[in-house]
Structures are given as C-alpha cells and as structure tokens.
Amino acid sequence: MTGGKVVILIAILMATFMFSGGAYDDGETIKQAEEEFLKALKSVKEAEAAGSDAGDLSDLVGKLNRALILLDDAVEAYKSGREGEADRTALQSKTISIEVESASSALKVQALKSKLRLKVMVMILVPLLSLFSSLLAELVYSWWLEYSRKRFLKMRIKLAEGD
To answer: What are the residue ranges spanned by the domains of the chain?
Structure first.
C-alpha cells in the first residue's frame, strides 16, 4: 500500500470517526476505545512516515478497519440501549487498537534502525571505495609509467642513410 493510499484511508477513517462521535454521553468505554483508536491511527501514520514496510502497514490498517467497525457497532449498540454489548464491543475495539499501536511502534523503531544502518554503511563504504579507486588509479598510473620508461629505453638510434 503506498503512502498516498494510507493517507487517504486515514482521512476517511477520521471523517467517519468525527461524524459518529458525540452521539452518546455516558459511554466511557466507548470514549476510551475512541482515544485508543486515535492513538493507534497516529502511531500507524508515524510508522509510515518513518519508512516502514508497506505490507506490514497494510496489515495494521486492516486491523484498524476492524477496530473501527467494532467501534461503530459499539456506538450503535449503545444508542439502542444494549450497554453490555456496547461495552464488550468497545473493549474489543480498544484491545485491537492497543495491539496496532504497539505493533506500529515496533515497525517505526525497526524502520529507524534500518535507516541508521544504511547511513552507517554508506559512511563506511564511500571512503573505502574512494581508497580502493585511488589505489587502483595509482597502480594503473605506475604500470603505464613503467611501460613508457621501458619502451623509451628499448628505442634504438637509427642513422639516416644519407650520412
């Protein structure tokens, strides 16, 4: 999943979330689930910005979709007066959001470590390549100089036939 698709998905999720909010007053579990969902969403966005693998991010976005569906179901159950079902569903959504948040944090750390390793490798390899290319240039130049010197020393003086 490309970065643009994740941003569009996040925007759609945020819009859905904003329009579904505020319809209940005492659903504390639902409010906590919403907060955890927003934290997870922010964490996934940060992991994407850090350069995490798109396949791993798409898995997390799928889990976030599941959490959002459960949260919407919880809101509907709360509106219908089924508070027990609403609390259970909101708790499931909260659990999924917490899992997604921790997984995306791990992906973010992994991506940052990978970037650091790449920078260190570049910082080590560039000077080494420079050294080897300089040594190769010196070797080629020395060989050419020796070849030219030997060729010059092998030259014979030829007298003109008219003298």
So the answer is: 3-118
Residue 151, amino acid: R
Structure tokens at 27: 């659903």
Identify the sign of the CA torsion 105, 106, 109, 111.
negative
Tokens linked to 98? 């917490």
Q: Regarding the domain delimited by 3-118, which CATH topology (the fold level of the hierarchy) does it fall under? A: Butyryl-CoA Dehydrogenase, subunit A; domain 3 (1.20.140)
Closest CA to 10 of 65, 50, 66: 65
DSSP per-residue letters across 136-156: HHHHHHHHHHHHHHHHHHT--
Q: Taking the chain, what is the end-to-end CA distance rounded to the nearest angstrom?
A: 88
Q: Where are the alpha helices (DSSP H) in 22-161?
A: 28-50, 54-79, 83-153
Give the number of other Cβ atoms within 10 Å of residue 91's Cβ.
Answer: 16
Q: At what angle do helices 3-20 and 54-79 cross, to 10 degrees?
A: 10
Tell me if the pTM is above 0.85: no
For the chain (163 residues), the mean pLDDT of every run of 10, in chain order, is: 57 53 62 92 90 86 92 90 88 93 91 91 94 96 94 84 65
> How far from 100 is each of 30, 90, 110, 118, CA to CA, in Å?
17, 15, 15, 27
